[in-house]
Amino acid sequence: MPFFICPNCKDRSIDTDRVESLTNSQAVACRRCGFGFLFELMEDYFPAPGTGLIVCDASGRILAAGRGVLELTGWGDADLLGGDVSTLLGISGFEAGRDPVALTLEWGVRRLGERLEITARSGNRKPVSGDFFPGYDDDGGLLVALSPRTDPS
C-alpha cells in the first residue's frame, strides 16, 4: 500500500494507483493544500511538531522545501532550491562514513533519528534530529525531515 506525505503541509494519504486522474496523466497532488506533488513512503510516517520537510532529487539537490524549514533554518525556498542539501544546510555531527544523505541515496535505506547539527542562515549551529527516506518512485530522490532538538549533545 503506497503511503504519501505532502512536503508542504505534512498531510498523509494513501493512493493505490499513484495517479490523480482516470487517464493516468497527472501525478498525485496534495488535496489539502494543493502542493504540486506528494512524496511516496514505504510506511506511514508521523513527523514531530516543528519538523521541516525537504525533498531532494537523486543527487541530493533540493527540489522543494515545506513549512517548518524556514522557521528551523532561516533559509527560504528561493535560497534552497537547486542547492545541495548537505552543503547548503551544513549537515554534520555524524561519524565518518555514516553520512545519512549519502547512505540513503546510495543504499535506498531509511535513516531515522539521526542526531545532527545544521548551520542556520544566521551562521549558528542548531542541533536537530534527522529522518532520511529514499524515494521509491522511478526518479529516486530523498525526503529529509529535520526536527529541532533541545538537548545539545
What topology does this entry show?
Elements: E1 3-5, E2 12-14, E3 39-41, E4 52-56, E5 62-65, H1 69-73, H2 77-80, H3 85-89, H4 100-107, E6 111-119, E7 125-134, E8 142-148
Antiparallel strand pairs: 1-2, 1-3, 4-5, 4-8, 6-7, 7-8
Explain briefly what this protein structure is.
The protein has helices at 69-73, 77-80, 85-89, 100-107, and strands at 3-5, 12-14, 39-41, 52-56, 62-65, 111-119, 125-134, 142-148. It has 153 residues and is of the alpha+beta class.
- List the uncertain runs: none
Main sheet overview: 5 strands, antiparallel
Tell me the distance between the termini.
Answer: 37 Å
Please name the CATH topology of the domain at 46-148.
Beta-Lactamase
Number of strand elements: 8
Walkthrough of the structure:
- This protein is an alpha+beta fold.
- It has a domain at 46-148: PAS domain (Beta-Lactamase, 2-Layer Sandwich), CATH 3.30.450.
- It is 14% helix and 29% strand.
- The chain is built from 4 helices and 8 strands, in the order βββββααααβββ.
- The strands form 2 sheets. It has a 5-stranded antiparallel beta sheet with strand order 5-4-8-7-6. It has a 3-stranded antiparallel beta sheet with strand order 2-1-3, with no helix packed on it.
- A hairpin with a 5-residue loop joins strand 6 (111-119) and strand 7.
- The chain starts with a strand and ends in a 5-residue tail after the last strand.
- The model has no long low-confidence stretch (mean pLDDT 87).
